[in-house]
Queue: 2 jobs
Job 1
Amino acid sequence: MRFRGKNYHLQPKKYKRVLFLFLACAIVLINKAKALPFQDANSSDRVTGKVTDLEDGSPLAGVSVVNVRSKKGTVTNVTGNFSLQANAGDSIRFSFAGKQPKTVYWDGQGALVIQLARSEGTLGEVVITGFQNIDRKKFAGAAVSLKTDEIKLSGVPDVSRMLEGRVAGVSIQNVSSTFGSAPKIRIRGATSINGDNKPLWVIDGVVLEDIVNISNDQLSSGDPTTLLGSAVAGINSNDIESFDILKDAAATALYGARAMNGVVVITTKKGKSGKPVVTYTGNFSSQLKPSYLDYNILNSAQQMSILGELERKGFVNSDILSRANYGPFGQMYDALNADPNSGNFSLQNTPEAKKAFLLRYANANTDWFDLLFRNSLTQEHSISISAGTDKSQSFFSTSFYNDNGWTIADRVKRYTLNFRNNYTFNDKLSVGFLTTGSVRQQRAPGTLNRISNPVSGQFDRDFDINPFSYALNTSRALTAYDENGNLEYFRRNFAPFNILTELKNNFIDLTIVDLKLQGELTYRFTKHLKYEFIGALRYVKSSREHQITENSNMANAYRANGNSTINQNNKFLYKDPDHPDDPAVVVLPYGGFYNRAEDQLINFDVRNGLSYTNTLGDKHDISILAGQQIKYADRQSFNNTGYGYQYDNGGTPFVDYRILKQTIEANFPYYQMTKFYDRFAAFYLNAQYTFDKKYNLFGTVRYDGSNSLGSSPRARWLPTWSFGGAWNMEREKFLENVAFLDYLKLRGSYGITASLGPATNSAVVLRSATTNRTYPDERESVIQLINLENDDLTWEKNYQGNVGIDIGLFKGRVNASIDGYLRRSFDLISRIKTSGIGGEPYKVANYADLKSSGFEFLLGGEPYRQKNFSWKTTLTFGYNQTEITNAANVPLIFDLVKAEGGNKLGYPVNGLFSIKFQGLEHNSGEPLFTNEKGEVSKAVNMQDDNVDNLVYEGPVDPTITGGFSNTFTYKNLSLNVFVTYQAGNKIRMYPAFRSAYVDLDAMPKEFLDRWEMPGDETKTNVPVIDDNLYAPRLVGAGAYPYNNYNYSNVRVADGSFVRLKTVSLAYQLGNSALQKLFVFKTASVTAAITNFWLIYADKKLKGQDPEFFNSGGVAQPIQKQITLSIKLGL
Amino acid sequence: MKMNTGDMIKRFSLRINSGIIIFVLFTSCGKYLSKDPDNRAAVNTPEKVEQLLGTAYPQANYIAFTEGSTDNVGDLGAGDVGAADLNTVNADVFFFRDTKSINEDTPEFYWFACYHAIAATNEALETISKADNPDSYKAQKGEALVARAYAHFMLVNLFSKFYDPATASSDPGIPYVTEPEKNFVKQYTRGTVAGVYDQVEKDLLEGLPLLDDNLYKVPKYHFTKAAANAFAARFYLYKKDYDKVIQYATAAVPVSNFKSTLRPWNTTYSVLGVNDIPPLYAKATETANLLLTETRSYWFRIYALGRYNLTPQKMSDLLRDAPVADGSWAFPIVFYVEGHNLVPKIYEYFVRVSVNADIGDGYNMVPLFTVEEVLFNLAEAYTYKGQTNEAIALLNTYLSTRITQYDASLNTITASKINSYYGTSNIQEGLINVILDYRRSEFMHEGLRWFDILRYKLTVTHETADHQTLTLADGDLRRVFQIPPTAKQSGIEQNPR
């Protein structure tokens, strides 16, 4: 320190190099060296005092207190108090990670009261890994810490969505934005092919277990289970203090064998000593109705003109009355028939009368969005009370979230409770208790699980009434009300259908109760040695009641038996196999369905750790942590189908024995219950060493055991390790005088992490099944060999190397982090075809490898800072690419062309492939493709495994993601503008084409450009609307050209987009104004708009959201939202 | 911080205590972590072994590729099974090509299913060998051994050169698996056909006496004593050990019982609606069925709709008049699609992926051993043993259930009628001819003709609609079905082509 000036003169060139490296502009450096006052060393006394946090007044424990003269030091205890030998006139220096150091002059007065402010412009703060709080300066891993205040999206109840664009290398895709469904989250891209790729969530040191595991593909399926997908949906975002996103092997090391996909650590708020502080936060949001202006749908007149073509082509004639579904034309032919009671015709069979009848529909231009959606009102009220003394602190919070529904079919209520107490008994012992609970009640449109149909190459979902996909897929020529204002019914599944009626009579009620009790204990044996215990018990129960009343179309479809054609074609009627020549019969004469699914989780997690920290001599900081962890999670899932429940009739079920007979003959279980047992134990050791506050070394070993691979002891245990180093260059002598340099840190890490793959056969897997035999009385319950024992089964593993640099300049005006990484995943689970001689033709084994690499940077700071005005900015950028380097799976065409993408050797994880479009056939206007054999054909066998003729489009997951946030503050007013972006991926457009259309379907505007006569194929790629005589012939020959067209390269768009995620304006009421007017100490008002503008997206998408998978069911796209948020402090 | 000795000791003992705690936890972890991750089955009682053996029968169908390779089929000129893959299977077999398809009704699918069944038997046998009370598993052991023998026996007959005493000890067989596979990729050897036959014989003879019909919940889907004896009769017939054929065939079905147990084509079946026959054909209550199994198969669609099927010519040759007997067969001829004639037998049980789904898997219930086959095997053995009268008597019993409006005075066959019909003076030769002819008609659409072609080295000719002729003569390498290419991983050579 004392030789700073000299140093400067000795090494001028280095400065220049540094200058050129980082700024390339001349800066005059001023030597600010200041001599400390010289002190007499003779007299001796003790200085005592207390150190608190400037922001909230809480005591700060572990603050380093050093007598500058004598170089003796101590640390504050848990109450923030210290005592140190000193002489009057000594300077005492206080330093603490994340705080600005402070040096005070002690003139011998009484106890010092020291308040430390948050450090700006230093590489401040700590990284919370859930096991340790590590001084960021010493930290060698790649991790990002975020304060909730900085990233909070007002009015967004699910905290996982707040991370979008905030962290370089973390990709968040809102594949559905229904409450409770999870976004697709990837930290540094995919690490596994068939296993999970989602990060581990950790809350206050305890891993948050999923209630049900939602697989990669399921996430975007729209199935009702996806409502349980988000692990953090039950958390009140106001309770969260900070997020720490751990990205590399060194950062996640203490999670060992579960860390492969990265870790998100959430730390909740604690009580603070001082007077009780009451905070109220209220959010009032409205989600805006979607509009047809944003979508590419024909209006009713255009639609009717195409229906006219359908009529000419024979799709629409009086036969329509025998079909499962019909719209206006069906209505017309129905009216042309004589009323059986009166014998009157309600419609004359004259061209004029028919025209007049249809004209009403042509002019209807029904706005389904208007009928099914509303500008919702979402309220969120949250109250928290923080209070405490030196010895005990408590934090209590409760919240109520109420969403009355963006659509008429959904609504959510959520209640949360969070109660946390910390007690300090003495210098040694402190304990904490945490109780959190949440209750969610949600209603969603009734839906069944979708079924993959590789035969035709599509996903089937019976009775889908998702309002969003209904509005997009239903012709605007249909009307919800007839001329007299009564509900108008068209036909679906042979039964009358009106979406408004159906949504009232077919819905899912979801209830989740989530309770967690957590206890923590810390015992300090000495200043250096500490024992820590953390234990948590969590119980979650969810039930989904799918209620289908007797008035619903779904129940009525079971009763549609109007004529012999319907009798033959209605698949919901029952044909008795004992009497094959008899007509089908109705087996649900009364009532509807009451289907129930329940998921339950009991989770127990205990950890014991011993940590030792010491500074040896002046320059050797040592910290060692050793511990043990044990966990279990028991899951149970149950579902049953209740037949014939009479909702309007006192709730008595009427069960026709034949519906059960049908179910049993179809070998379909009408109830199921499954249990899963997760047992886990681990031992860990972590050591950190810092020399001279400059050179940091970091190493971790962990030994995990799990039962998830099967009961065999061989596969059970797995060691993982990592090490890393960091170099705080700004402390080097040659940089000490660079005044503009706040910090400069180089770091590197390497290690192995792991994850459990989707295979459980370290011992043989046998499961009972019922044989598929024609006659129920010949069936047996048998035990089936599912998987042979695999002696070689092990965890999926990943080597990761990371190098990074952190730099801060000009006292916080500029800071940047750059990271580059390489990852090699190996022993990934892949499905592979075997000789079959052992009895298992396809085995899942650790047989795939994956490499990925990427880099990411964060550039931020506060470039402009004046008394009244400041500008803060953050730009994040992440690039990641993956390649499957070894896999023996045999994908089918359907596996690769589906919207979620598929996995093929030599391509990225979830690569999207297309069937190659070969133009339209000259004579018919039907599309042609390169089929599986390489020939030009209308028919492509989607179940073929020859995928060489497919076109590779690109990955489904974006390779580039990031965000750009700017906050401008003027006095008490602050404006935040936040933009997110992604690029590098391809998306499959909505499947709009079919071989046969009915007069219910809405068509996109592409249809106006369709092929209509030979020669058009040179001008358009949009195929002809097929002839009714021809279409069935194609299907009979196993050809589905229109479906192939949906999966062709014509129907792929670029996934890049730039979205104005949010703009918010906040006003903080000034102190003086508040004191005069209110009892409040603090008050602020924020207005925000969210998702308002998709600044850039591929034009081909024409309104299709590039993030959203329109899979029906319970899926909803992200919504435009306006929020008003009020925060009051008492 | 100052410390007294008491503190020191406390600290020390605390450290030791936590050390002990960690150690104890570590050792008790073994038990804690051996919990199964889900509610999977554990096979640990005779009842559960019995349930496991419910899957010890190949759940795949050999009929599509064996029947399609025989001289029972021709080219109808048109036909569509409704799925490209099934059409391919149907055509490939007709043209004697190795099919690329790996789905239902292909040799590869059958290969996998047989070994899957074998794996179940080996899993059962391993459980039994480790059990504390192996005696209470006797019947299960018997079933496992016989089932293991059966699956291997079918494999060796299809994927190796057909058993010929002269070359069997050098012809490559198929891997005979006798223990559960525990490694991801395990190496096997093919051995020889003779070696496989020896092991089949050993398992069969060891298992047969242990069987206990009373244990089965649905006996017709398991190796009952009768079914196992029928299997033994077939085995020794293929091995040409006729004394043993007689021994096991008569054990399977006592001669006096044939009349009452044969399929009642000219009585009960002839008064049923044609739609009612298929559901009945493979029903457990049908006395003629000795062993049934459920197979993942679309054979029903193939023979009902496929292009390469029973032609009108073959229909009139094979299904109209019964040779020698001066009567006409009682087999009804029906069609689902005009021009695709068939005898209603195998039927499809379609299992949808969910109750109301349009898609699902097809299952065919297939009789693997029948009273008819036992009768023919016995008749053939009697013939070779010179007991021609017994053979003729059996065939007359058979005809009494097969000839429309059977009249014993008209339809009874005799040695002289046989000889004159076939133009021979050797009644043994005549009998073999008549047995082969009757078998061919009887087992129409059931694939067994293929094994007669192999046994008697018959030449198969297929004629296409445009009059190309394809010939598959004895010694043609294509008479042995191809082993899946992935078997190379396990060190198994494919068959020469």
Job 2
Amino acid sequence: MRGNPESHELIGAPNLSAVLAQLSAAPGQWTPIAGGTELMVAHAAGRLNAPKLISLWGLSELNFVRIADNAISIGGGATFGQIRKNAVIETDFPLLSKAASWIGSIANQSRATIAGNIVNGSPAADAPPALLVYDAEIELISVRGARRLPYADFHLGYKRSVLQPDELVLALHLPRRFSTHRQYLRKVGTRKAMAITKAALAATAIVEDGVIAEIRLAAASVAERPVRLFATEASLIGKRINASTIQSARDALLSEVRPIDDIRSTAQYRKQVAANLLEEFIHELSPEPSLA
Amino acid sequence: MSLIPLTVNGRPTQVAAPPMKRLLDVLREDLGLTGAKEGCGEGECGSCSIRMNGELVNSCLVPILQADGASIQTVEGLAIDAELHPLQKAFLECGGAQCGICTPGMLMAATHLLESNPRPTLDQIREGLAGNLCRCTGFVKIFDSVAAAAAMGGNLKYAR
Amino acid sequence: MLTPNPQDFLETMSDSPTHRPQTRIVGTPQIRKEGVDKVLGRAKYIDDLPGEGAHEGMWHGATVRSAIPRGRIRAIHFNPRIPWSEFVIVSATDIPGENHIAMIGADQPCLVSEQVNHCDEPILLLAHPDKRRLPEAVAAIRIEYDPLPAVLSIEASETLQEIVWGNDNIFKQYHLEKGNVDEVWASAAHIVEGEYSTGAQEHLYIENNGMIAEYSEETGITVWGSLQCPYYVHKSLMSVFALPADQVRVIQVETGGAFGGKEDYPSIIASHAGLLAMKAKRPIKIVYDRTEDLAATTKRHPSRTRHRTAVDGNGKLLAMEIDIALDGGAYATLSSTVLSRATLHATGPYVCPNVRISSKAWATSTVPCGAFRGFGAPQSIFAIERHMDKIALALSITPDEIRRRNFLHTGDTTATEQRMNEPIILDTLLERALKESDYHAKRKLFAGQNSRSPVKRGLGLAAFYHGAGFTGSGERYLNSLAGIDVPANNKVRVLVANTEFGQGTHTILCQIAAESLNLSYDDVEVAPCDTNVVPNSGPTVASRTSMVVGRLIERSGHQLVSMLRERASLPETYSAPEFFAACDRYRNRQGKVESLCRYEAPPNIYWDDKQYRGEAYPTFAWAVYVAEVAFDSVTYSAEVTNLYAVQEVGRVLNPTLAAGQIEGGVAQAIGYALYEKVLLNNGHMVNNQMTNYIMPTAADVPPIHVFFEEIPFAYGAYGAKGIGELPHDGPAPAILNAIQDATGHSFTAIPLLPEDIFLRFLAPTPNEEPVAQ
């Protein structure tokens, strides 16, 4: 343990407004801490550069799952444990449910929040690919009010986002129109549990008479942030599923992704595996006879 | 320094601690409950696992401020006086503990699993314990112990 | 003289009355002696101490370590923002005795004085009352170096371009010759060559290293700690502190896993804690966090083994030429003995009339390697068992048949000319392993399915032995003393310096004592592992505890019964109360009730250290393992889906504990093969976190099927042989053999990660099929 608890100020607040007021009063001075599954690791490693922290844990205004006819809204403070247990999420957004089950371990899931996963900004984060292929919207809040934008526009670069210093993630909104989509999510990690992603692919698609009518693809650990693979999607939309389509989609993906070598894996491996995952998904979309 | 009230194994108490002090350290240093261990400090090994408000958590990742008013359950509260919890009996009989350092966390994870799923399949046991590393057993006799405890039936609930 | 029938064999060993086949307690699954405390969470490991009122005024210690792999220290700067007067600072100049850690040699300094020889080498020690102040203090010390060229691999060391140790970078070498290898090549039907390598491995005990030390002028130095060998630490401390034996006291506390990682390393951390305690004049606790333990403590020796093998047309071994290189890191530590075991296991469980083995342990500028379960055997056995499959493939013989044709049998001699006098049942083990794993049927099934599936399956096997106990005259040199006593509280106490760290030492030794005294298991407990209390029964290593120390306890029990009969009227048959009453009578007359025995070597064990010839081990455990794997061609990852472990280990003293050892060792070896990689950057471990050093989780371990055959060893406790290390020897080659079966690709290096397999699919090696010349 290399962190010194006495070097940090940590305060709570009675409600969301009080937190937002504090963030507004001293922008950039207060680091929000929710479940701590990232920040407390940094603290133990002696690299928590956050002299002042403000706790979001237990704020009911951030912790909710609201079901409406057209969409569900997941509060930024919802934990992955809660997300996993929600029956509607499991039915309507199974990829998110699956991703939640891959966060660390059960003990991590009971503390890690969806906002934390997003705001931490790791390109390897587990929730973002699913959110991206579900056309999620993200809602940010500050004393200045709330604003919504497509989640796909949230991450700007490596650990950079549109989030302002006085803002928090209030909610993710997912439109309930993917029930009839074909869906796919696969994570490739260093082991079967408690694994950081080496490559992951999420996909939703509609196939009509062997032709891809709609497709969304998103990946983790293939770029400096979680990304939609728009160019690869473009190579597939409106195409009949056959060996040649698969090949050109693979090529498009290999050109589009730009993973790196790091402590966990290599760029070459990540590229190839991402392409393999894509091919695996496309095979699932169509039974083999049509691939002749 | 903050004064943090919490209930530990059914007993209300309070601690004076810096708000960023880890719940793990509060348990071990302020409350003398050394069952929870520090194996990694980063939520990977699970040897610090305890239950907070009925959820399994890695206590090395919880700042004590966030445990304000919480109900904490640790391995020290599993046995009631001289009566071992069925899981503790099973670990003894089936050889689920070798060096014992992972055992407190493993017992908390297993208790948590059996409370919500009294008859887990082997795959469910694997998943329930996937956050607890054991270097001695290869997990085999830990799985056996959990299955044996489940088969014992009876009251698997954490009493305090 | 062939003795194929185990029962005949037992009866010829007529000197011991103890090998009656029926036992009441030995061989039964007694509950772990210290198990209740462990499941209650009441067991106290070093960081759980001090308890109430103990170690009053204790401070905490931390270590300042080198940032470069090799160089001279030019200057040390203490940042003035830290109030240094609050700290106690220790450097090499504070060492009262020798600045070295006494192990086999004395080349490793306790603290660096002038030259750094590996990253994370300890230079300074700090102590402070508040442990939370230490990390920033450590970070506030800036050391200036004049760097020297570092040698970071075996190959670099072999070039001798930079000499980093001795005259030639070689810690130790062995050369073994049997028959005449050179005469065979010309006429051999086939010659098969191969090169195999294994990486470093970290023990990853869940409890990090830790010590508490106290020092006083009157009593000298006392340490409490997480450790395997209290008398090793004792010897080291005597040297560092220039104190006589009775002024050094070492106490083992509950230890959370060791695997060899706490065999030699504790001497270092104990010396550090002691030096701070001496200078601070107060108790000191040093406990490493995971990142420090991973970066700074010992690892398994990486290896490179080259095989050149001549076989006849039927696949019978004619000659083996083997070159072994181990990477020992910066200091000799235990490299000479690791190398010895690697050498003695290099030919596998096979007969071969002509053998040449040349082995060397090389110095590099990396953290010194040390003991780790298997101790050189996993490295060698990986090579030979991969190589046997290569030979099989070259000759179109099946992996099981090639082994069957070459197995050692009773009466054969090994590479050191040791005649195998005991029963060897490798054929039985092989048949059982093939049967339990459904090897032939499954291989056929998988071969049919694989082309139509993205997941390819296969099976592979490995046959191996593990020499039980110390090599050659090692045990004679240890000259262990152990036994029992009976204090006035009506409990028998086992007196051993051997430590419990999960493998079941306490349980087994209590079972043996209870058996030999004809008492019940609950009548026996273990004395505190304290050098002031227990005799030196040798280290807890080399799979010797049950076999050798257990035998001393067995003998001590019989000896005590004789003593009580002779001097205290113990009746021929007795109840426990009668036993303890006799003990009371004895104690009243003699002062204490104590029965100790000293090690006696089995007859006909002659080992020539110079010629490297003779009886290398008093006995061997034998095994055949089968690994079943699934290879996913989408992710290039291989996983083990079943592991069948069949072994003959002498008498199984406690079936639960024995199976537990096999299961744990297999899991660790699966990690060794497929998951665990030590990543070094300029000699420093960069993946020194549990997130990045990957061991298998509960979701990753396959079903492990354990089967025992038992042929009692006459000189082991109740027939026991060693068991703890055997299971780490076989899985890795079996797994890679299985991967070759599944994919057709041969891999010769571990750890084998998906990224490594992937590269082969990118560019298959041109000559992948072994070319038999």
